[in-house]
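Retro notes, structure queue

What went well: the backlog is down to a handful. What didn't: a couple of records were mislabeled last round, so from now on we paste the full input next to the output in the thread. Example, using 8-oxo-dGTP diphosphatase from Streptohalobacillus salinus:
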Amino acid sequence: MQRVTNCLVRQDNKVLLLKKPRHGWYAMPGGKMEDQESIAQAAIREVYEETGLKIEQPKLMSVATMNKAGALPPKDEWMMFTFVADKFTGELVDFCREGELEWIALDEIGKIPTAPTDAVIHDYLLKQNARVYARFDMDENEQIINQVIDIEK
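Corresponding output:
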């Protein structure tokens, strides 16, 4: 199982996302957890490495498992922990090797290309301000074929 953290960094009705070159999708800054890290430590480290911003008091808002058909272990099952942060220090980096950093207006989030699972999570976290517990079953093309969503408002 792969364990990943990511974070929706918000400022002035915008959210910071990375445009990833692989699919042309926008993604939240984040990545794989390292040994001996807590999920919060991983989120803080990953956001800093990719953006130059040091997030403060990130709130865990989503825990999701993703089962990917056709993938070989350990990439067949992922656990993703998504945080939201409204406070940060530092300066945004000019270059990120993971993709192009961009502040996206909150009302544009549903209109930009994202991974299907991210679109679901964005909707609950940014529009409904709900905590999400989810399971996604995905096909070989990373499209959702089944989902179970529990929310907490």
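Agreed that this is the format going forward. Reviewer comment attached to the example: The mean pLDDT is 96.
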